[in-house]
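Entry — protein

Goal — fold tokens:
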Amino acid sequence: MEGGGLPQLPDTVLLEVFLKLEHQDVLAAGTTCRQWYGVSRDEFLWKDLFYRYYKVNRSVPRHP
């Protein structure tokens, strides 16, 4: 561990953590470092947040 900070977690682990957060918290977490910024911009993450926030059934078709 360099610099006394947090050990670097794999992106897949960070994504699982971010999936448990609210959208405001994901945005705040993305300001922590480059790795967290990249994970916080994941398309799958934001699709999940969208469905949760707007309570949209995932079976509803999206427009092309």
In short: The mean pLDDT is 86. The radius of gyration is 14 Å. The helical segments are 11-18, 23-29, 34-40, 43-54.
